[in-house]
Amino acid sequence: MEISIDNKDLDDDGRIKRTGTLMTASAHIFTTVIGSGVLSLAWVVAQLGWIAGPVVLILFAVITWFTSVLLADCYRSPDPVTGKRNYTYMDAVKANLGGIMIQLCGLAQYGSFIGATIGYTITASISMAAVQMSNCFHKNGHHAKCDASHYPFMIIFACIQIILSQIPNFHKLSWLSIIAAIMSFSYSLIGIGLSVAKVAEKNHNVRTSLRGVEVGLDVTATEKMWRVFQAIGDTAFAYTFAPVLVEIQDTLKSNPPENEVMKKASFIGVLITSMFYVLCGCIGYAAFGNDAPGNFLTGFGFYEPFWLIDFSNACIVVHLVGAYQVFCQIFFAFVEKWCRKQWPNNGFIGKERAVSVPLYGKYYINSFRLVWRTMYVILMTVIAMIFPFFNDFMGLIGAASYWPLCVFFPIEMYIAQSRIPKFSFRWALLQILSWACLSVSIVAAVGSVQGLAADVKTYKPFKTQ
User: Fold this and answer.
1) What's the pTM?
2) Is 98 helix (H, G, I), strand (E, B) or coil?
3) Where would you find the membrane-spanning parts of this chain (predicted)?
């Protein structure tokens, strides 16, 4: 069936006119950034201390904002305002760098998406189990035996994601991102409020220090080193949104120029995120001291006010439902585009079937999309069940994706697009920043791998509590 579309409804590339705005782009960024990473920041500051903790949080914020500005100019090539659109991060790398860089970018980007969906499944199940335990303690008393296995909740989360994964593409996610962003602000504010209340308690007495957890008292020297490395990885993960920046930019209207709007959205996102992160990290550390838990919302116990604990954990789950889709929809689109290119005449892959849905109208079902997206969610859930290690997993994802996607590729594309002379002063400064971030990523990855190795030694897969 042919559908007539007026030229005024099309963008300069012949596609349906984009409708994204500063608000929707900011919502996508908040949904991506203020995620499960915020829950570990009290633990991060506990490992680094009162001086290094806030400094590391602010330093990562500045670097993230700077490189996001560089990346925003790479959406169009060769000119950042009038050039040809690059629909994905890989397209931008292809247009500016080419060669093996395209494959390396795809490996880093889609690897980070896969890791994030596993991490979000783990985090959502922890929060759902926390709601069950909170209600159990409230009903049966604080001395009752209230254990909760995370596995049933991982399955519930997977069922929700199987349904939402049938949303056709990333451009249809604005409403979900806005809801998820509201949820992320809600549980962050609740965490900050509960931390302030805990600090204000009359008998509040916790150990904090300028250097964080103390060698000989809290940990050994070796454990301190590994924890510091892992904390840096957690911080990197908490700020990462570069893997989806180009895809978010591709949802924006062309007037005003997309790069201008994206730079404003990035500034707003990083600024507000940094404020929340410093507050969550520092006030959370003040509340729990050197014994700060990996997920600071679980550190408040499961008692009173039980309804507030329930609400905050419910907000986390709703937020992660949206964040999961922001990441996996881009990966879905990549795989489906590749399959259509490889088998252009395959009906199973390319054919769309119209189905009437009450209160919605016609919805087009693609058999390949239905089967493969369902299998992807199931596989990620099984992996999450096998390796449910929150802190170490977040640190490893951050370490593996932060340098290549947030620093290396934006800097190299900016150098290529701006034709910055090799060995010039500006080139040297950008390379120093890149190499410094690479060093940080390496030590963070080592710390996270060590933590995962230690967890695996004592862990038995699929063992219920």
Assistant:
1) 0.81
2) coil
3) 21-45, 51-72, 93-112, 118-137, 149-167, 173-197, 267-288, 308-335, 370-390, 396-415, 427-453
**Cα angle 226-232-235, degrees, rounded to a multiple of 5:** 140
Cβ-contact 88, 286 below 8 angstroms? no
Q: Where are the beta strands (DSSP E) in 338-459?
A: 352-357, 361-366
Can you give the CATH number for the domain in which 237 is found?
Answer: 1.20.1740.10
The set of residues, in sequence order, having a beta carbon less than 8 Å from that of 360 and lying 6+ positions away, is none
Is the residue at 370 inside a domain? no
Could you tell me the residue range of the domain that residue 412 belongs to?
14-342+388-458
- Asked if residue 242 lies in contact with residue 74, where contact means CB atoms within 8 angstroms, the answer is no
- In-domain check, residue 137: yes
Location of structure tokens 């570069």: 242
- Residue 37, pLDDT score: 65
Question: What is the CB-side half-sphere exposure of residue 172 using CA atoms within 13 A?
Answer: 9
Q: How many other C-beta atoms lie within 10 A of the C-beta of residue 253?
A: 16
Alpha carbon distances (Å) from 12 to 2, 15, 82, 330:
21, 8, 10, 22
**CA–CA separation, 384 and 398 (whole Å):** 17
Q: How far, in Å, CA of 465 to CA of 427, rounded?
A: 54
DSSP 8-state assignment for residue 215? B
Nearest to 228 by CA among 440, 11, 459, 419: 440
For residue 2, the model assigns a pLDDT of 43
Q: Give a yes or no: residue 71 inside a domain.
A: yes
Task: Name the residue with tokens 């410093």.
Answer: 278
Low-confidence residues of the chain, pLDDT below 70? 1-7, 34-37, 170-173, 298-304, 359-361, 388-395, 397-398, 455-465
> What is the per-residue pLDDT for 228?
87
Cα dihedral 163, 165, 169, 175 in deg (nearest 10):
60
Q: Is residue 367 in some structural domain? A: no
Q: In Å, how far are 116, 129, 311, 382, 462 from 465, measured between CA atoms?
A: 25, 11, 24, 18, 10
Between vectors from CA 312 to CA 302 and to CA 386, what angle results, nearest 5°? 75
DSSP 305-359: SHHHHHHHHHHHHHHHHHHHHHHHHHHHHHHHHHHHHH-TT-HHHH-EEEEEETT
The pLDDT assigned to 4 comes to 46
In total, how many domains does the chain have?
Answer: 1
Tokens representing 382 are 């099984």
Whether 252 contacts 76, CB under 8 Å: no
Residue (of 303, 318, 296) closest to 133 by Cα position: 303
Of 316, 307, 394, the residue nearest 157 (C-alpha): 316
